[in-house]
Fold each of these.
Amino acid sequence: MPELTRRRALGAAAVVAAGVPLVALPAARADDQGHHTPEAPGTPAVSGTPAPAPAPFDEIYKGRRIQGRTVTDAGGHHGGGHSGGGHGGGHHGGGYAVFVDGVELHVMRNADGSWISVVSHYDPVETPRAAARAAVDELQGARLLPFPAN
């Protein structure tokens, strides 16, 4: 039997994915001002309207302090060192920053509304809080190191 290579595995996955039917997106509803909002919190916005920012959080999870909050460009994310807080909105989190023990955990919102982090990149979750918790689980007590930005 031939050895399974990355190329063969990716080819097989592409064949399988091509045969999977597309799933219908959940319907959106209009709010009082006529803006479309997704029905479920993890679903993406429709009609080009950006999804609402997730709620901020600050908690202790398995002995680690995890935080999440919206950020603005005023924090200056892409230049200089870590200041323990106000990073800018120029990253993949779409104006939302997540921290583990004061160190930024880089997060990204996927097109389907799910979230991933640099620590658990292949395990999408519903919220940035869940991404922070998954990172703590993956770190298994290790310290999160600052991730150099561009």
Amino acid sequence: MEIRRATTPAELLAAEHLYDGPAREEWAARFLAAPGHLMLIAYAEDGFPAGMVSGIEMLHPDKGVEMCLYELSVDEGYRRRGIGRALTEALAAEARARGCYDLWVGVDTDNEAALRTYRSAGARDESAFAMLTWEFDVKDR
């Protein structure tokens, strides 16, 4: 298993089976061009994208820079092999190297697999919180 940072839209498109929906080339290019956005992809021995984690740097005037673990996904055929933990640890290492003061992730409290993965990678429970969402009608979504 090799974990590499994605640097081309083609790499992001090849990993679209790991996303919630289909990837778009223009969104992949925009993601890569956005400062502070990164995706790490875990490749199986045959080059198959077996898992991915995406992170976004967030900057605030009184806090500095932190990293949000935006999404983690492992292909069903590769689960329970430590890939999710390895990807999470790789993102944490990248956040430290970038000078981030922390790495955080929002997780549904009933998502036991995700909770186990993040805890095994060193995360600790800080508190329960509610996530509220505003949905907007976006053309071409």
Amino acid sequence: MDAAQSLLRQRIRIRYAKGEAIKFISHHDEFRLWERALRRADLPLLYKQGFNPQPHIQFAAALGVGITGVNELLDIVLSPPVPLDEAAARLRAKLPPAVTLHTFEEVPLNAPPLQTLVIGADYTILLYAAPDEIPESLLAERIADFLARTTIWRERERKGKRYTYNLRPLVFELRYLGYDPTLEEHRIFLRVQARSGATGRPDEVVDALGFDDFARTLRRDRLYFADNEDDVAVMAQYPVISQEQIAAPRGVRGESLRRPAPGVEIGPREGQRSINERAVDEFI
């Protein structure tokens, strides 16, 4: 890109929250939500060239069905540039109530893609159940069992092909935070690796614990990035897990969200379809 073209383009980084009201939409639908909001705000969103032009909208990390986000990031490219305050005000007026715009800032056009910088993520798992439905002792027992294991084989599908991987090394921290009687929810903290080809999925963790049949929210509280010193310092205490390290040997099959984990008897599953099966995006 020459200097003249650069002057006609503006890359903007948006920090926002995805709320409860739209947690069941897919990543594809969220992409369209942002495209439509930007168009309704009459912002000059730049489109890629080609037979099927796509807008320059880049998410840091996709949020699956049933997952909310507190501090999500996405980049857009406008051409020609628009004053930041004006662009933010116009966009904020067109976003649905379930999307909260936190910050709106310009970044260099040649900055690395957000997806290549993500290295980890923190989640809060919220299980909506009374203590007599899910005793705290049972939660503690399941978490301790999860952490004590070295292999937790899970089975996923990507591009029409099934594959098995080891979830356990991707989970760095998992601990029970307590029960809120007012909201009737159990809270569990989860920290995972989030790198290309080796990302820990919170829905897989919930299913491996045996609680996927209970109403819940998976909330992503924080993403960690390789270009942020504080983020790198936090993640430096954990090993970097490669895709090769979690790949299953030939012949090994893992548990899927489509069937219960061994020994789990909580909640009827026959004839049910997990909300995670409706997710169209893959994180691994």
Amino acid sequence: MREWLQHPATRSRLRGSLFAGAIGDALGAKTEFDSIDRIREIAGPAGITDLIPAYGGVGRITDDTQMTLFTLEGLIRAHAAARREQGTFTTSRRQQGTFATAATAATTFPVEQSLQLAYQRWLHTQGVSWERARGPQDTSAEPDGWLITNRELFSRRAPGLTCFGELEAYGKTGVRAGMDKPVNNSKGCGGIMRAAPVALWSDDLAEVFRLGAESAALTHGHPSGYLSSGAFAVIVRELLAGKPLLDAIATARAELEKYQGHEEQSVALDQALALSREGDPTPEKLESLGQGNIGETALSMSVYVALTTTDANTALLASVNHSGDSDSTGSVCGNLVGAMYGEQALRTDWLEKLELAEVIGRLADDALAEFGGNAPGDDRWYARYPAH
């Protein structure tokens, strides 16, 4: 039994992290890469102060939240499969530049493969036929599980070209990438923006970091594209457990420095920490850290905003009022501040307008049941979250 998952505040923090990530995503969806001057033309002189219409409605999410939900579903399915068969998980551990397979049991479940297949299901929701999306090892006629039955997910919301292209490539070859087998040299933010749920995977922070990084390395092969995701997953994990943000950052940075190629992300975090000591956030200060479209700046900008605000809603607005990748920084920052302040701290009018809010809440509660030791063991649960 994992004690921190049994704490009364954990449910609010987990739901808050997922809800706030989706709200930040929706707040920034309309103005992604618009200049701050253009944002002020669209939303008023104070910039974005509320949800504005995007993708044909108010509160609509983008691919950032869609992929985050499929990450969480993939983790639940991997964990449920091992629990059902009383097996263990196949994981890769990085030590001094090499990788070795962890201890195995009679039955092994590669969680990275479960994540890969979850992202292939997401690819199918983006207009790719299941035959092309599923990969050559899968002969199923259609995708399974509960999440993909929610038809609202079948909407294309400006998916990242790197994610889309590499998942299409997997659909053709069935070859899974990883830190030890980079698929490209991309350090785009498409890895980090979906990685928050990895925080639930383990009480071993080194394992949380590793899986966060491996989850991003499925599509992004540059160290700054995947190590940012590992650091992010550790920070979210510590916040969910009630740790202060500065302590969570320090813990993540210590794990980060164990990996080759960490320097860009380490420097970016140091810059965010230094800037946070200069007072309240402004668009100009935030933009001095970057645009948020690559892994290391998506994390550093989000950390900076979380450090310089005192409530979740102010942080969410600050995280999207800049000239860069506003939906992604809104999503990543939202995952952080939602875990810090909890669901009850979020504006109710935003939650009421948020697309897929019921699905997000139900998936969060199912994850807490699965990882907290209270998951049902009946056929209905395993049909909802089937293996792989």
